[in-house]
Every structure is written in structure tokens, then in C-alpha cells.
Hints:
The structure holds 2 protein chains of 2 kinds. By secondary structure, chain A is of the alpha/beta class.
Amino acid sequence: MTTASELDNHFRDIVRWHFSPDTGTPHWLEWAAQAGWNPAEEVTGIADLTRFPHFDGELLRTEPHERWIPKAYAGRPFTIFETGGTTGMPKQRIGWDDYKIDYEQFSDTLSDDEFPKGGYWLMVGPTGPRRLRLAIEHLANHRGSSCYFVDLDPRWVKKLIKSKQFDQAKAYMTHVIEQAVSILEKRQVSALFTTPKLLEELGDRLSIPEAGIKGVFCGGTTMDPQTTRFLCEEILEGCVGFVPTYGNTLMGLAAHKPDLKADNYSITYYAPQPRALLRCVDPESTDTLVDVNSWGRVELTTLTKEFFMPRFLERDEALRRAPCEQYPWDGVGEVRPFGQQAAKIVEGVY
Amino acid sequence: MLRHGAEYESLDQNELRGIGSDEVLARISQSNGGMIKRDLRRAEDAAAALRALSSARLIEICKDAGELFLNGELPLNQQGDTQTADDYVATLSKTSGLPHVLVRKNMRKIWTVLDGMGGILRGLMRGMDPAVVETGFGEHCDIPVYYAPTASALGVVLPSNSPGVNSIWIPSLALGVPVVLKPGREEPWTPLRIMQALIAAGCPREAFSFYPTDHEGSAVILDRCGRVLLFGDEAVTKAWSNDERVQIHGPGRSKVIVGPDVVDDWKTYLPVLAASVADNGGRSCINASSIFVTSHGREIADALAEELATREPRPADDDQAVLSAFANRKFAEFIDAKIDEDVAAGGAEDLSRARRDGPRQRDVDGAPYLLPTVVHCDSVEHPLARTEFLFPFTSVVEVPPDRLVADMGPSLVVTAITRDAKLIDELKRSDHVDRLNLGPVPTSHVEWDQPHEGNLFEFLYERRAIQRAADW
């Protein structure tokens, strides 16, 4: 839990870290030299966030990795993580221990009944170069467990759908599900990570609770309230823990506000403050937050010693939600692709 | 939404508004594809509930349901809301654009099917006792027969254009096969009222699934039901055109052919041409969209344009109304622009233009209408010569006598006004004719003991061999 002053302190510390010659990151040091102001000295708290422009995600495709290495990490081999389902050159984030810290913290939010310590996990979803793959394994390990993996390559699925090869997309989905079913039928798995679509498909092939699953950790694509209700009540048959999450390679992962039924299955996510900050901003005036319970574009700020990324405009929109008991800061509700209301977006491919 | 007859209120709801109005007439629960998949696993249970009733009882239920559909006050939902026949007429008119008088005509059509189900089944089953579907075994003309169902449920992906299309799936219930319906966005009213009438008359609720849904949900119905009736344009139906489980009800491209033997007498047949083009607001796949003649093309087109010009938009509750409004204004604008563009490209003349006062598109009470349009085309190759639009539109084309059938293209209904034996013989043999009307019968005329785009009994049951030992 962070208070406003803790967030101010953390923000100031991280900015100092990345903008100080002793510890800083080449990209940010060079940026500051041309910015006309010195963030290391001038930033006093989170109110200064809007002094930074929106982070240009293209830099993660074009800048050499060395430009993102803080001085303190120099010489230490890093892991290269890529973003999800886009085709072409992906965005790449380098990292060392962030994913472990993020998922260890997240582990504290999981119930031991639903995700029993020592029980086997199964991940069915995009593995490959994604941070999620190592993160899930670390989460399982951190809880004394080991994890099986079934990969789904969302980039290939997107290509199939774009070229209208729907039969191939369906066959690939079946191929993925068959592998998962095989593991669930032959091994004792108690916890599952997968995407909403794959969970639905799995539930079409077998009874998730009867397969021994006690908890499902789920993320990757939009879950509107009805989808969430359907997953909880019917696919999980009302007796399996359901932990939706919102996250990506650039942020880490946001936890959800518990007791979904009480909120009529409308999911609200809370960023892992102070390590990341999610804001709902007015798309037409992105310095301004929208009102609580209004739609805005999701803006992500990542604040770790490994990675500083201010005000990155995600390709998502959400309802700004008020703080809650567990997470006393703003949340993002009913996250969906930005502009979904205006145009049909191919998103639910995996 | 009905899931095997049980109402389900979804958190995902679409608001249904009247045309040109902000008034929300209904909130329609939407289902997701996964839900439909899950329910279809229990399709066999629903079929068993329906088959527990005799065929004779199901025919009786249909008859009673016909009366309820036409005049009854029926449930709308489990909250206790009900709908009278007048409510149904008014609401359907508001969301679909059909004037009250046309909705009532369609109601009558649906009543005819429900009321006359016994005769319809005899027509579909060629006189065989419908009870054969109870056990699968029976006799026909002293020959033992064995019919096996091809599906546990009939999926139906419905359009919004005309309530009459619902007549097509109703016999499925009398044949002991439950239905899984996906209504058109603007037209949930008719399938819902038919189902409620059948349930009130004694049909097991389990036999009805009703899923307002998106493309993904439609795809599940198409994928998972053993047999499906799919309504839609070519963009929708193309992917399923080679799937024998799916019966496609696409554009009708129905036609009237006036043979060389009678064409000089064309004025006699003008009322048949007008009815073929404009009955039911010109919205049905059985409305004629092309008229092939061997001579007098421009004269016929001009006279028809004059005749149809008398049909003007009127308020929805006007008993004289014959045109339907468009539920989607952009669609009306698109069609209007497309006709103008194709006429401007040459080879076609819009003969209705001189007959109307102002542009083709006109608003009445905030709802967009397109006025009847007759286009004379120089050739069957013109883009307007063999196309179909959702309003009274037809082309008139002169075609050489020996090309009348060859140039016709796929046609749901062909009215052949001719006694020319050679031409009739050609039509009989053509793969392109689904329903043949011989003589001056409007394309829009329907006899319900005839199959419509395929025989539903033969679609839902297949004959297999049966050989029994003498004493078995």
C-alpha cells in the first residue's frame, strides 16, 4: 500500500536514479541534456509527471538496448522481453529482476486455497519472447510450485485472421487446446494461467473444476462484465477462484479489486503502485484526468530502477475508478481497446 | 435471451430504438459465443422433450399457437411484461420500418403456416404420415421407410428485413426438431412472439433457444448446429456456401420473364409486374428485382415506373401505407447513391426519375424511405440488371428469346408469363430456378405446401434403409 507521499518519494527517487550521471540511463541523460530542464534536481513529486512528454513507444523498437541500461546494471546480462501480439518489429524491453519483484508482490494477493503452494501450474497462452512466460514460472516457483507450458503464438493467429484464413486459425486454436487438455487429463494441475478466450475453449472441452483446477489467473484480452460473469458462473462452475489481471511487458501486472460479483462483474484493476502508475486521461487533452466513472485513455508510467517510462499512452481505454480499500489509488475499470466503440478491432484472437 | 426456454438476463445489452427516435423500446440481452456452445451440448435433451409429444399433438399446438400469435396477449419476459397483438404491430413497425398494414399481412402469413401445419407437413413429406418422425419408422405407399434426424437442433440466423421469413423455420418444431434462433438486430419481436405463442399453446420451453448475438455467436450456431438456415447477403453467406449443413437464404434475385408469345400483350400483365416488385414493401427475396422481356422493354419500364410512382411513403399507421422505412439511414443513402452512380455510368435509364417529385430518398416522420425505382438497362451485363435492393426496385431488360434462361442467373422465384413450351421446358431444366410460377402469378405469391429454398423435412431428416425380419 502506498500513500501519496510514498508515491512522491518513489517518483522522485526513480527520476533521480535515471537522470543522475552516477546511476542514470544513457537515453534519459541525453534526453535531459536537450530538454532544457534537469529532472534529477527539479522533480519533487508525482505532480511533476506531466512535465514529461508521452513516452514514444517506437523507441523500444529502434533504440539499441545499451541505451536503456542504467549505469548500476552495466555489464550484467539482461533479459529481452517483447510485447504481445503485434506483427513486424516488436517493442522490446530489457530487464533484470523487475519481473521477479512484480510477481512476488503479486503472489501476496493470491489465496493459498485457490493457488495452493506446491501444486502444479499450467500456463496456456503466449510464451515465446514475452515477459509473461518467465514471470508465470517465477510466480509458480515463488509459491513452491512448478509450471507446465503450452504456447500460443498470437502473432501467427493475427496473420491468419488478417488473411481471412479462419479455418487455419480455428485449427491452431484446437491444436493449442488439445495440448492443454492432454496435460490436464494426465497431470495433477491445480492452478491455471490462460487468456479468457482459451479458458472458454478449455471449458468447452472439459470441466475445469473436475480437472482439479482450484484457481485461474487470467489476462491478455478484454473481459467485459458479461464475459467475466460467464467465465465465473459457467466455465468455472462457480467453484474455482478467478483472478483477472491487466498487464503487459512494459508495466508488470495490475491486480483486480476482489469480489467481482459485488461489482456486477465489472473488473477494476489497480496498478502495482508505486512501481507503476495507471491514469485515465482525456484523449483530447492528455494532461487532464477524466472524471471518476468516465471513459479515458489508459496512460502508463513505469517507475523502477531498471526502467523509467513516463506517460506511455496504451492502446486501451477504461473507466477511471475510485480508490478502494485494498488499493487506495485510482483504478482502471472495464479496460477495452481504445476506440472500440468507434471501430471493430480484432483483439479477441487468443 | 432464451437458453433452452429459460430466460437469461445478460449484463451485455443492446438498446433497441425506433427509427428516427431516441426512445429506447427495448434492452436486448446479448449472448456470447461460449454460452451458445455450452447450451448446445444439451441440444439432445431439448429434442427429447419435443419428441415426447406426438406429431398430431405438435400440429394441434401449432394451430393453437397461430391464434395466440395473431390475437393473444403473450409474455415478453419473465418480469411480467406482456405484448398484445397491437403492441407487437406498433413496436415492430418502429424498429423495422414496416408500416402497420404490412406487419399485419406478415402476421397473417405466419398464422397461415401455424394454422395449416398439418397440410404443410403433408406437402413437405409428400403425403407421408408426419408421425413417421416420432419413431423414425413408418410406411409410405406400402413401402417401409426409416427417417433419421440430421440434427439435434435447427440453427437459424435470421435477417431483419421481413417478419414473414420466420415462417420458414416454424415447421421444424412440428417435425420434432428444436430451434436455436439468432434474430436480426432490429427484429427480435417476431421470433420471440412465435416462440411465446408456441410455448403458451403447450410446446416444451426447452425446444426454444433465442440468442441475440454478434458475429462470433452466429459463427457458433453455424459451426455447432447439425443443420442451419442462414439468411444474409453474399458477404455473409459465401463462407458457408459449400457446407451441406447450411441452407443459404441469400439474395433472391427473383425475376419475371415475359415470353415472346405474350409480350405484345404486356399491358395485361402490368399489375402482376407491379405486385411482384412492390408487394410487402419490396423487401422480400421473393420480390422481383429483374424483368426480362423480348421486346417493348422501355415502354414496359416506363409504364411500370408510372404505376409504382403512386406508391408513396405514408405514416406507419396509415392503412394505405405500402412502403417501408429503412432502419439504417446510411444503408438507404448507400443504395440511393449506388443506383445513381450505376445509371450515370451509362447503359441504364432511371425511368422513375421523371415520375417522382424530388429525390429518390424521402423522409417521413424522421424515417428514411426510398421511392420505387424502375431502371431500363441496355444489357443483362449492366450492374443494375441482375441486382437486388431492399425496396421496390427492378430493372427491365430486353433479352433475345434464346437467351432468356441462359442469362437469368440464380433466381429464387421465376414467374414465367408464357405458354411457349420450349421456354417452359428450358426453365424446368434450369439449375437457376428455385420456385417456378407459370402464368401471371406474382413472384411474391406463396403456397405453403411447396418447399421454399429447399425442403425443410428433407433437410432435417434423411432416409435410410430399413429391412425387418418378417416376425420382428
